[in-house]
Amino acid sequence: MGRRRRSPVNQMFAWVRKQSVKVKTFLAFASIIFSLVVLKLLIRDHNHFFIASEAIHVAGIVVLIYKLTTQKTCSGLSLKTQELTAIFLAVRLYCSFTIEGDIHTVLDFATLVSTLWVIYMIRFKLKSTYSQELDNLAIYYMVIPCATLALLIHPHTHHSFISRILWAYCVYLESVSVLPQLRIMQNMKMIEPFTAHYVFALGVARFLGCAHWIIQVYESAGNYLFLVGSGYLWLPMALLAEIIQTFILADFCYYYVKSVMNGQLVMSLPPV
What we know:
Helices cover 72% and strands 1% of the residues. It has 10 helices and 2 strands. It has helices at residues 8-18, 21-42, 47-71, 79-99, 103-125, 140-152, 161-176, 179-188, 193-219, 234-261; strands spanning 190-191, 267-268. Strands 1-2 form a two-stranded antiparallel sheet. Helix 4 (79-99) runs antiparallel to helix 7 (161-176) and helix 7 runs parallel beside helix 10. It is globular.
């Protein structure tokens, strides 16, 4: 029998893997630009980006709930990422009530309730399967710097000072909340499917949120970054926070897609 031919997708990944860092960087940048152009052409109301982002986040949490209820294990999940997520969602929910109650408020509430349930399962019901020794990135490394940055750089609007500080805080904290989850996956090397699906959903959600900002900046020829009354540093910092979180997850999403295309149920990460 002859050798089985690899699919075009696998051949593409093999070709990309052989390229230099500069070529890989260029291809990643070109892919991002292409995706942004497609989204801009297909979606007219850019607020739908945020709605889709939050809906995908909810879908990711639903995947975790399914894992916890059917497999009775929380192995590979970071309790600290879930706690950070609950913190920024609770803060954002408060800001939504006081600033702009709308569909975002409903989605944030659903995500917060689901996240709290996941935390309860990890802390109590499935505590024996939690890899605490691998979930070793201290929360204060993220909570304290984000709080300090929120005090220094926040929106200047007509809302109360506390609301403005809290809004900035939840934006900054969300951008780094996934770091403990990435740390525990790097420590474990092997990632089971449901955890990988959840983190990939976070990556897609963050890309959509980032796309909203970038397209708004493009259409306003950069003026959107410096809207009167928003503070000259706030909007650039908010955009930077979105970009940071997107790039934090971009590498994982690449290996996720590669594993799915190769038909691998258990995903592995390369050594650091």
